[in-house]
Amino acid sequence: MSVKYWLLFLLYFVQGIPYGLQSGLLPIYFRTVGLSFTKISLTKLLYLPWFFKVFWAPFVDWYFSKKSWLIFTMCSLALTCLACSFLTPEKDFLGVAVVLLLMNIFASVQDVAADGIAIQLLGPEEVGFGNSIQVVAYKLGSVLAGGGLLTFLHHLGWGALFVYLALIYAAAIGFTSKFHLRASRQDSQAKESNLGLLGFFHELLLVPDTLWTAGLVLIYKLGEQGSVSMFPLFLLDHSFSPQKLGFWNGIVATTFSIAGSSLGGQLMSEAEFSFPIKGNVYKVRVGMRGPWCSLSLAVFLQTFHYLTR
C-alpha cells in the first residue's frame, strides 16, 4: 500500500477518536459515576459543530493550505486531550463539556481538510479503495477510543486515558508534517474565486440532487443515533459491566461494521454500479434497519429480561 493511503488511514483514524470517545466511552462512564440521563442526553448538543461544518468549510478552502489546517487542528486536539486529563466529570462536568465542544470544533475542521486531502490524492480509479480506507480507519479510531479504551478504563484511569490520546495525536502530527503535499488545481481555483459565503452556498445548491441527498443523510443519521445511543446505557442499568459493553457493543459491533465497509469498498472499486442497483441496495438496507431490526431487538430484550429476572 502506497504512502498516500497510509496518510489517509492515519488522518481518518485520528478523526474517528473524538466520535468514539463521545459516543462509546463517555456516556457509559458518565452513567457509572452517577450522572443523570438528562445530562448525558444533553452532551449530544456538543455535536453541533458538525452541523455547522458547512459554514466554515469554505474558509478552509480559501485560506492557508490543507496541511496547515491539519497540523493546527491535530495540535489543538492534542491540547484539548491534555486539558481533559486534568478534569474529572463528577466535579467538573461543565469544564469537561467545554473541552469536548472545542474538540468537536477542531475535529469538524480537520474533517474538511482531510476530505480535501483525499480529493487531492486520489484519482478517479482510486476513489473506491480510498473511500474504503477512510471508512475503515475512521471506525478503527472510533473503536479504539470507544470500546477499546472502555474495556481498559478501570486499569488506565481518566487522566491517563487522555494522555495516551494526546500522544496518538502527537504521532499523527509528526507523520503528517513530513508528508509533502502539493497545492492542487482545485485549491488554487478556490483561493482565486471571488465568491462570498452566500455565493458559495448558491453554487452548492445548483449541484443536482444536493437537497434530497442532504435530507436523506440527515434522516438516516438521526435514526441511527436515536436507535443506538441509549441502548448501551439500558444494558448498563441491567447489570452489564462497562468492560462487557466495551467489548461487545464497541469492539465486536464495530468489527462487523468494518467488515461491511471493506466489502463495500472492494465491490465499488471492482465494478461500476448503476443507480438502480444502488437504489435496491438502499431499499434492502432500510428494510433491514426497519421492521426486522426492531423485531430482532424486541426478541433480544424480552429474552434478556426473562433470563435476568
UniProtKB/TrEMBL annotation:
SUPFAM superfamilies: MFS general substrate transporter. One of its GO terms (molecular function) is transmembrane transporter activity. The chain crosses the membrane at residues 6-30, 69-87, 94-113, 156-175. It is a multi-pass membrane protein. GO terms for cellular component: membrane. It comes from the Eukaryota. Residues 1-16 form the signal peptide. It is found in: Membrane. Its main location: membrane. InterPro entries: AmpG_permease/AT-1, MFS, MFS_trans_sf. Keywords: Membrane, Signal, Transmembrane, Transmembrane helix, Transport. It holds the Pfam family MFS_1. This is Major facilitator superfamily domain containing 3.
